[in-house]
Amino acid sequence: MPKDGGIGESTKRREDIRFLTGKGRYTDDINLRGQAFACFLRSEVANGRINSIDTSAAMSMPGVLTILTGDDFTGMGGNPAGWLINSRNGEPMKEPKRPVLAHGKVRHVGDAYAMVVAETYGQARDAAAAIEADITELPAVVDMAKALADSTNLVHDEIGTNQCFDWGWIEDNRAAVDEAFKNAPHVTTLELVNNRLIPNAMEPRASLADYDAGTGDYKLYTTSQNPHLHRLLIAAFVMGMPENKLTVIAPDVGGGFGSKIYHYGEEAAVLAAAKAINRPVKWVAERSESFLSDAHGRDHVTKIELATTKDGEFLALRTETLANVGAYLSNFSTATPTFLHGTLMAGPYKTPLVYVNVKTVFTNTAPVDAYRGAGRPEATFSIERVVDKCARELGIDQAEIRRKNLLTPDQFPYTTPVGLVYDTGNYQATMDKMTELADLAGFEKRRAASAKNGKLRGLGLSTWIEACGIAPSNLVGVLGARVGLFDAATVRVNATGNISVMTGAHSHGQGHETVFAQIVAEQLGIPASSVEIVHGDTSKIPFGMGSYGSRSLAVAGSAMTKAVDKIIAKGKKIAAHMLEASEQDIEFKDGSFSVAGTDKAKTFGEIAFSAYVPHNYPLETLEPGLEETAFYDPANFTYPAGAYACEVEVDPDTGKVEITAFTCADDFGNVMNPMIVDGQVHGGVGQGIGQALLESTSYDENGQLLTGSYMDYAMPRADDVPFYTVDHSCITPCTHNPLGVKGCGEAGAIGSPPAVINAVIDALQRGGHTHVKHIDMPASPARVWAAINNA
Amino acid sequence: MTKTTMTVNGKPVAAETEGRTLLSAYLREGLGLTGTHIGCDTSQCGACVVHVDGKAVKSCSVFAQDVEGADVKTIEGMANPDGSLSVIQQAFQDNHGLQCGFCTPGMVMSSAALLAENANPTETEVRHYLEGNICRCTGYHNIVKAVMATSGQTVPAE
Q1: Are A272 and A414 in the same domain?
Q2: Which of A299, A320, A369, B10 is least surrounded by CB atoms within 10 angstroms?
Q3: Which residue of A has its CA nearest to B132?
Q4: What φ, ψ does residue B35 adopt, rounded to 5°?
């Protein structure tokens, strides 16, 4: 074990030093000589026909360098959807073009239709206000059910419908599921809304484009979770340039949560403008623009039914969901409500029959895409709410009904009725751990104490599972993915023995620079401080798919491990030569290559030096140098899972919910850095509590966003949340990746919302308000009070 | 344009500023102190908190000219004179009180101001004081823990 941080240690984060001293380097902190500033003019109406855009007055304003509109981009391609979904009838989804800047029509409030570039941002903003756009406002399509019913008022006229697709999963199972419902002794039905959320990474989106007229090379500094994906989309799909003429750099990025996976039109627009004026062009979103134009999350309306025996054994599950995709298809918007949602509807349970129907709907609202958890929180919320309701209807204890139906350890590998193969797990272990840590046995005592204070205490549980590290590429290709889902790493051992690791994963808060170094150090038996992690720059790193879906460690970490294996293998060859032994006799341990059974050895540093100063080296059979790249395409998803408990106190006079305790017992497989894993769970739970109690994205019937600032959109703040109890000591290592890891980034956001709402319902039920069967998120004081009082 | 003078992180600075230039913009663009971050446009997020004459101030909510003559401290001025992390900065690292780092400068400046006013704040006091600083990454757990640890208090185990 290396002295300064190998696998399993809570090594403190090296990146913190720069963040704590103001030396982080985010996109807006980078300034290029001669840079100009862009301001986007955005639609004030949700649906409108663009009749004309007169830029002449604006062009004559001080400092204005150029103004571009949708007309300037008609020769470019559209920003594509990354996943082709077929409807139940076999028809491919509707895929209207998403232009760089709106052209012909504006389709949501905030849809950008012109860009002003000026010497200063103030000048660009002033000039944008002087553009005269003649836009005829049309009736807005906002409500999903109405959008489907109306074939005359369309978001995209050319596709003839507001439905993107009507997906069934698995369609062949539908008849059997329906039959099971017909014969079921008990059916629990619940209609619910999974509220639309606005991701709100604290760093707003930003882009700085540079163009070299001498070489024709473009460079884009941007807020990206996946710089290679951005380069591919911009170069190959939108702007039509060779990929090797574009470098994308995602420097320090201030949070993503999904919203910075996607390519947005502003990025192509600033690149085009940089070429047009032959100067660097910077754009930084104002927070208002983030609210209006970042891809939103969730926004499902679901009817879920659970068929059971009288004693609560699950027989079949069936859902119908309307999923909002907003005005345009964002890159993963079609995968999120389908393959990241429908395939998870078995949850951790042995329900034998499951059928999922999802209709995706275009509306005149901001595009909706993957947001922390992406489809899996929607699946978990639906399942865990209907299970909770079923238990109440049947008079079975909340924990008992779950234990009765959870898969047992002897059932793995387990093929679900929705097409996944869970490789391993122990859901009883996490239930037991949660039961102990949350002191479920002491709940009644705490409830009685709350009651004395006039408060209604409730206990909510949830069990969850997710599929991370989406893969393998050939399978997802069959299912409609238009990209591969491998990742890559290059391990470069420098002549002096220190190491640079170039990874396709991108860190925007996850601490990769620390934890990846721990892993490489452990494998090589060297100090973590001699390993440097390089990420975020397409000119330095191998082609990788970036960070989202809790995939970095399971996929990029595995690639790194495989690259280090190659380094060790080559090191053995070099050592064999230097030690005059057979390669088979060389052992590598604790940073030393030795001849088995002897004291003859060479240190890792000596081998590295020899590789670059190959004087005593087998040059006839072996290339010099010590640098290896590995690409890793996982054989399967990973399946982290856990059990959560939430305790709340509800004030019956005001409807205010206070979370008094929140407990997470998770199985993430092997844990590389417990401190970082704890932090990931804390953050996810914080976001989940935000969804459950606070965050609401409201559009009015005209498609105006009513929650477009921090004055209106209730972000969780320090005094909205408690200290959390988190545990990840239940470990069933992933069976198919070299580290045995599963992923932890989304867990908290997946497992927590149903636990919170189950707790609120429990509090009201125990408090005698037995008419309250469900409250939609966010369970704001107004909603809870109304639920109590609308008996 | 008006000549504006102030002390920033112990050094006197003077520059011509427009009336509409916010202190946050002046620090970032005028002085290149990009540790002060802009996370919103409604003075809600707190990423831009600095100290003006020892008090925590959202630097997006005052004009540069409004702090004429003042003593301003930013995150770049928080480390010890030898460059090592100050106690509060070290507590944030020790307790994993930051992830993406974007809200961190404001969070550290607010926390330092709290501890200057109240050396031994309760959990409730810490949470209440930090209400004006939004973090999307940490769920606040480790931030509150860091602030309480700085004041020598026991904090909950995981």
Answers
A1: no
A2: B10
A3: A717
A4: -70, -25
CATH of the domain at A401: 3.30.365.10
Stretches in chain A below the pLDDT threshold 50: 1-2
Containing A376, the helix (H) or strand (E) segment is: helix A376-394
What's the rounded Cα separation, in Å, for the pair A428 and A345? 19
Tokens 């059990």, located at residue:
A643
B75 touches chain A (CB under 8 A): yes
Shared domain check, A617 and A553: yes
- The H or E element that residue A458 is part of is strand A456-465
Find the residue in A nearest to B47 (Cα). A202
- Interface check for A200 against chain B (CB to CB < 8 A): the answer is yes
Which pLDDT score, from 0 to 100, does residue B153 have?
82
Statement to judge: residues A375 and A397 lie in one domain: yes
**Which candidate, A599, A512, A608, A593, places its Cα nearest to that of A560?**
A512
A190 in a domain, yes or no? no
The answer to whether A201 contacts chain B (CB < 8 Å) is: yes
Mutation target vs A (from B41, B136, B145, B148; most A CBs, 10 A cutoff): B136
A599 vs A610: CA distance, rounded Å: 20
- Residues of chain B with pLDDT below 50 are 158
Q: Is B35 on the interface with A (CB under 8 A)?
A: yes
Closest CB to A203 among B75, B102, B127: B102
Domain count, chain A: 3
Query: By the 8 A CB rule, do A389 and A774 touch?
Result: yes
Hunting for tokens 């002295």 — which residue is that?
A3
Give the helix/strand (H/E) hosting A65.
strand A64-69
In this predicted structure, what is the pLDDT of residue A373? 96
Q: Which of A626, A588, A347 is nearest to A463 (CA)?
A: A347
Structure-token pair, residue B105: 């400068």
How many alpha carbons fall within 13 Å on the CB side of residue A543? 11
pLDDT (tens digit per residue) in A420-476: 999 999 999 999 999 999 999 999 999 999 999 999 999 999 999 999 988 899 989
Residue with tokens 């004693």: A311
Q: How far is B108 from chain A (nearest CA, A)?
A: 8
Task: Report the 10 Å Cβ neighbour count for A514.
Answer: 22
Chain A partners within 8 Å of B27 (Cβ): none
As a whole number of angstroms, the distance between CA A65 and CA A276 comes to 9
> Do A307 and A181 contact (CB within 8 A), yes or no?
yes
Domain with A677, as residue range(s), is 300-470+636-789
What's the burial of A173, exposed, middle or buried (CB within 10 Å: 0-12/13-18/19+)?
buried
CA distance A184 to A310: 9
Tell me the shortest Cα–Cα distance from A523 to chain B, in angstroms. 25
In chain B, count of helices (H) and strands (E)?
5, 5
Assess whether the previous peptide bond of A778 is cis (omega < 30° from 0). yes
Stated pTM of the model: 0.97
Chain B residues with CB inside 8 Å of A676's CB? 96
Structure tokens at A519: 């892993």
Per DSSP, the three-state class of A99 is coil
The domain boundary, picked from A632, A651, A666, lies at A632
Helical spans, DSSP H, in B74-140: 87-94, 104-117, 123-129
Contacts of A370 (CB under 8 A, 6+ apart): A258, A261, A295, A297, A332, A333, A335, A336, A340, A548, A549
- The pLDDT assigned to A1 comes to 45
Nearest to B141 among A26, A710, A723 (CB): A723
Any domain includes A481: no
In this prediction, residue A778 carries a pLDDT of 98
**A146: which residues sit within 8 A by CB, 6+ positions away?**
none
- Please tell me the distance from the alpha carbon of residue A514 to that of residue A12, in angstroms, as a whole number: 8
Q: Both A447 and A532 in a single domain? A: no
Domains of chain B with bracketed CATH? 2-77 (3.10.20.30), 87-150 (1.10.150.120)
